[in-house]
Design goal:
The complex is a heterodimer of chains A (459) and B (531). Helix content of chain A is 47%, strand content 9%. Chain A is an alpha+beta fold. Chain A is globular. In chain B, strand 3 (48-54) and strand 4 form a beta hairpin. Chain B is an alpha+beta fold and 531 residues long. Among the domains of chain B are: 3-94 and 114-247 and 309-354, no CATH class; 397-491, Translation factors (Elongation Factor Tu (Ef-tu), domain 3, Beta Barrel). The longest helix of chain B has 38 residues, at 284-321. Chain B has a 6-stranded antiparallel beta barrel with strand order 10-13-16-15-14-17. Chain B has a 5-stranded mixed β-sheet with strand order 4-3-2-7-8, sandwiched between helices. Chain B has helices spanning 3-15, 71-90, 130-143, 163-176, 188-195, 208-212, 227-235, 254-278, 284-321, 329-348, 360-384, 386-394, and strands spanning 19-20, 34-40, 48-54, 61-64, 96-104, 111-119, 125-127, 185-187, 196-197, 398-407, 410-411, 418-419, 422-426, 438-442, 449-456, 461-466, 487-491. Chain B contains 12 helices and 17 strands. The chains are: A alpha+beta (459), B alpha+beta (531). Chains A and B meet through helix 6, helix 13, helix 14, helix 15 and helix 16 of A and helix 1, strand 5, strand 6, helix 3 and helix 4 of B. Chain B: Residues 428-449, 495-531 are annotated as: Disordered. Chain B: Residues 520-531 have a biased composition (Polar residues). Chain B: Residues 428-441 have a biased composition (Basic and acidic residues).
């Protein structure tokens, strides 16, 4: 891996310098799995890609520009997550092992407990990552030697190289068994009667996919294969000359220690604190994360489009208060185009800022991405309303449909205005009296008094 | 989002004010709706924190859990909620009308006349948003299987007697809320969004206060309605960092949790501990007072975040009452009354609570009901409201125009000649019409079908042959055929939805679908852990 880095050293050093310039003289904000997953959710946004790659504190930028992100986590929610995880990991992970055993097909109960190596959780990230790599290699080797042996890595530290810079990621746990490893993601939302909130499960899957990707990189590194994301991007660029084009996104990696593409989601069951584990296929999330991160390595292209001297430096003073003039900062932010959609409001610190800009620019995307897709060249509210009024110079299909819709709307509103005022006590038109027997089937079936209608539809 | 809705939103962006999406009110609003604003805590999914409810906008009742992790406090809360809500729900069960119908005798297959009770009115719950509906569903699920001290095997933590009943009612109402057009339990954001478009996205409309900011300037805002007013609702904070306009729940603002709620709960806990230590000593009275003060402080803080939403919901009701009710609303409300009556009867018959998961037949039945009601709703709305019909016309499923020519033709193929007049309609609409297609006349005195015989899309002319609804005579009955110059609307969809084939009884579930459900498999109250 080191040899590789030096091979790309010149380029990534230059890139690193450029990103540091953008950020200013502060420590970069590390990319955690949540941030990486959010990035993959809006792949078209250059603004987010550039600011994240440079490690800029987006929340601080948004606050400086007067649109702070309204995010925060309730202390109750944090405590709840911690309590659940603490319960799982109490007594040598007793509560956690049962669902994991079941999933791996190990004999339940008093079988051989897993090895739980010490991963130096109080050390710095680089030391922890090195220790995790060591423990992972040992565990893989041991599990290959003895198929009954399994290892639980509690809060390992994984390293993922993103845009040439290392990002450190901390999954809740990683299981090693039979020469492969499995990501375990612990969440405190419940699985109620066998189903959970799909939005939360989706977020967990995206997050776990980032860990899987990091483990794949680790396995490749251990096997002595090229791993750097930049290298993959090169492969993609030169796919036709390269003898071994990049593997397909859904192809499973088969190396010693390769992660399973199914992760384990551990959640409380129903209203209690008893854990239940569900296997989650993250192949799709993995493919999109991989694609997105490969794009990030082409960050040079995005940077090349920026004016020289552009910077998102907040120039904090001694007390940490930003001193950078807001207008200057706003100009710098505005120079990187964003792909705003209302979904951003709940996912990105810059959401409110980008919304204000979208509104100021009169962009139709303020109403949703689908509107923008539907309207094609009509990108502003002004143009769309002109198309509706039929006063637009050009007329494509979208404009024509909009004009037609506007005519129908105006006609319907006019018709309603000329409608006679309803009588003071609006006599509802008598419901078409259903024929007695037909009515029994058509209207929600009232249970017959003679027969207990268990489970009559909630009608 | 349909193109017409998008257009209305664009107009709202420009005008800074909500624009109409309906010219009539498409949902029933009762005389005496009960507004209910629930709050949940982040300590557990669906754990209740507080609820503000009532039928009188000037006198809401507040119930809350001073320590959300304490099971007993939660039961007290649920019992208080049951005492408040159940009398309201049950009060509609006494006044009934008798409806005669018939039923097939299962043995002989004969039709037997029977009389059924139908409650004259039904309860109506209004919550701020769809999150409120989900929260009530969770509460229902968490409580309907609880065992009480009256059960033969009460278990270690018996619930107060009426709590499981509350759970069954909440489950019924939240299930019914899934049925399109139903009005027993309605979220205010959805109600408003059905009738008006704002100049923001559907996602931003989920916050009731932000949606209402397009109707009237919010409290504390001096500018006009519109995007800036909505953003004020979303983000404006006071000098303590608290939102001027708290979110409509059920989740509370994390900053409120951190700065206001958590300290107040900690004080309550401390006062409780102090009281326990002081019991039997001279300090007991003072400790009791301290406890009451801590409860009062919590009450005041919760009221502070609930009241703005309470007023918002009532303001939303005021807005909706300015619209005249649509004619088909009464018919849909009758379905709601049947639904209410049915649940009343199931409770009275002592049936077990709704199962955790539906068996195959029940699930298929629910789905069929929802699909049928969806079609019925769409047809009803289109007939009631020119704006809803405009949606169908834009989609090419209907057309309106002026009758330019009427030719009195007859069908002489049978024994007696039947009237089959030909109409020519001039329309600017673009229906997906081809010759031979059957169309239905909207707003006819009697239901009337016609067949398209010729289409001249370039000139906007359609020729139709009327097929029925003209009486039995040789000549059409007066008024049954449109005249030249009349405005007519025809739809390509049927105006009375067809009935699907009946589904089997749960006991006759075929083995391909899992066979008959194992009795009591889902519905028995197994002991369920509770934090």
């Amino acid at each position: 891996m080191d040899a590789l880095l030096s091979q790309h050293g010149g380029r990534s050093e230059q890139l690193g310098r450029r990103l540091a310039e953008l950020r200013g003289p502060v420590a970069p904000r590390g990319l955690d799995a949540r941030a990486l997953a959010a990035l993959a959710a809006n792949p078209g946004c250059r603004r987010r890609a550039v600011l994240d790659a440079a490690g800029v504190d987006k929340g601080a930028v948004a606050a400086r520009l007067g649109r702070p992100a309204p995010f925060g986590r309730s202390p109750f929610a944090i405590a709840r997550g911690n309590i659940f995880e603490a319960r799982l990991k109490a007594d040598g992970c007793a509560a956690l092992l049962e669902p994991l055993r079941r999933h791996l097909g190990l004999p339940p109960g008093e079988g051989e407990p897993p090895a739980v190596p010490d991963l130096l959780t109080s050390a710095g990230p680089a030391v922890r990552a090195a220790r995790t790599a060591e423990a992972l290699a040992e565990a893989v080797e041991a599990s290959q030697a003895d198929p009954a042996r399994w290892t639980l890595l509690d809060h390992p530290m994984l390293r993922l190289s993103v845009a040439g810079a290392p990002a450190y990621l901390e999954p809740d746990a990683v299981l090693v068994h039979g020469g492969r490893c499995t990501v375990v993601e612990i969440k405190s939302f419940p699985v109620l009667d066998g189903s959970a909130d799909p939005a939360k499960v989706g977020a967990a899957a995206r997050q776990a996919a980032v860990y899987v990707l990091a483990l794949q990189q680790a396995a490749e590194a251990a096997a002595g294969r090229p791993t750097d994301q930049a290298d993959q991007a090169d492969q993609a660029d030169q796919a036709d000359q390269h003898p071994n084009p990049a593997p397909g996104p859904y192809q499973e990696q088969r190396l010693p220690g390769s992660p399973e593409l199914t992760v384990l989601l551990v959640c409380p069951r129903d209203f209690g604190q008893r854990p239940t584990a569900a296997a989650l296929d993250v192949r799709r999330e993995l493919a999109s994360t991989r694609r997105q991160l490969a794009r990030m390595t082409r960050i040079e292209e995005l940077l090349a489009a920026l004016a020289p001297g552009t910077s998102f430096d907040l120039a904090p003073d001694q007390a940490g208060e930003p001193t950078r003039p807001a207008e200057e900062l706003a100009e710098a932010v505005a120079s990187v185009p964003a792909a705003y959609g209302p979904e951003c409001l709940s996912a990105c610190e810059l959401g409110f800022l980008c919304r204000a800009q979208a509104r100021a620019a009169d962009a139709v995307t303020q109403l949703g991405r689908s509107v923008r897709a539907e309207f094609g060249e009509l990108t502003t509210v002004e143009a769309a309303l002109a198309a509706a009024a039929g006063t637009l110079e050009f007329a494509d299909e979208a404009a024509d449909r909009l004009h037609h819709a506007a005519r129908l709307r105006a006609e319907a509103l006019a018709e309603a205005r000329t409608r006679p005022e309803p009588a003071p006590t609006p006599a509802p038109a008598p419901a078409p009296a259903p024929a007695p027997d037909a009515g029994a089937a058509a209207t929600p079936p009232p249970p017959a008094p003679t027969r207990p209608a268990t489970q009559a539809a909630a009608g | 989002m349909s193109l017409l809705t998008t257009l209305a939103r664009l107009q709202a962006v420009r005008s800074g004010h909500a624009e109409p999406l309906a010219t009539v009110r498409h949902r029933h609003l009762g005389e005496r709706p009960l507004v209910l604003v629930p709050l949940a805590t982040a300590v557990e999914d669906g754990a209740p924190l507080a609820v503000l409810l009532g039928t009188d906008r000037t006198a809401p009742a507040l119930h809350f859990v001073p320590q959300p992790l304490n099971r007993e406090r939660r039961f007290e809360f649920l019992a208080a909620l049951a005492d408040e809500l159940l009398p309201y729900l049950e009060s509609f069960g006494t006044e009934v009308e008798l409806v005669s119908g018939s039923e097939l005798d299962p043995q002989t297959g004969e039709k037997l006349p029977i009389t059924r009770e139908l409650c004259a009115d039904a309860p109506q719950l209004i919550v701020p948003n769809s999150g409120g509906v989900r929260h009530l569903a969770l509460l229902g699920r968490a409580t309907r299987f609880r065992r009480t001290a009256e059960d033969p095997d009460p278990g270690p933590y018996p619930a107060p007697p009426r709590v499981p009943l509350l759970g069954r009612w909440l489950t019924h109402l939240t299930e019914r809320a899934q049925v399109p057009g139903s009005s027993l339990l309605l979220p205010m954001t959805g109600l408003l969004a059905r009738h008006w478009a704002t100049g923001q996205s559907h996602l931003e409309d989920q916050q009731l206060g932000a949606q209402l900011a397009w109707h009237a300037p919010p409290a504390g805002w001096t500018g006009p309605t519109g995007a800036a007013a909505a953003e004020f609702v979303e983000t404006a904070r006071d000098e303590h960092g608290q939102l001027h306009h708290p979110p409509a729940g059920p989740a509370t603002d994390p900053r409120f949790d951190e700065k206001r709620l958590a300290p107040a709960i900690a004080r309550y806990d401390a006062a409780l501990t102090a009281l326990r230590h002081a019991e039997g000593t001279a300090a007991a009275a003072a400790a009791q007072q301290a406890l009451q003060r801590s409860v009062a402080a919590l009450r005041e803080r919760l009221l502070g975040v609930l009241l703005p939403t309470w007023h918002d919901v009532w303001q939303g009701l005021d807005l909706l009452r300015t619209l005249p009710p649509a004619p088909h609303v009464a018919e849909r409300w009758e379905s709601d009354r049947w639904s209410y009556t049915g649940h009343r009867d199931r409770v009275a018959a002592g049936e077990p609570p709704q199962p955790r998961l539906d068996d195959a037949v029940t699930a298929a039945r629910k789905l069929a009901l929802r699909e049928r009601e969806q079609v019925r709703l769409e047809v009803g709305e289109a007939l009631d409201d020119p704006l809803a019909m405009a949606e169908r016309r834009l989609a090419g499923e209907a057309f309106s125009g002026l009758v330019t020519e009427v030719v009195a033709a007859q069908d002489t193929s049978g024994k007696t000649a039947k009237p089959r007049p030909l109409l020519t309609v001039h329309t600017a609409d673009r229906p997906h019409a081809e010759p031979g297609r059957e169309v239905h006349r909207a707003g006819a005195p009697k239901s009337q079908k016609a067949e398209i015989t010729a289409v001249d899309a370039a000139a906007g002319l359609l020729t139709l042959r009327l097929l029925n609804g003209m009486g039995r005579g040789k000549e059409p009955e007066p008024g049954s055929v449109p005249a030249v110059g009349d405005r007519v609307t025809f739809t390509l969809f049927e105006l009375t939805p067809r009935q699907s084939a009946p589904l089997p009884e749960p006991d006759d579930t075929p083995w391909t679908h899992g066979g008959p459900p194992a009795a009591a498999q889902n519905s028995t109250a197994t002991s369920e852990e509770w934090a």
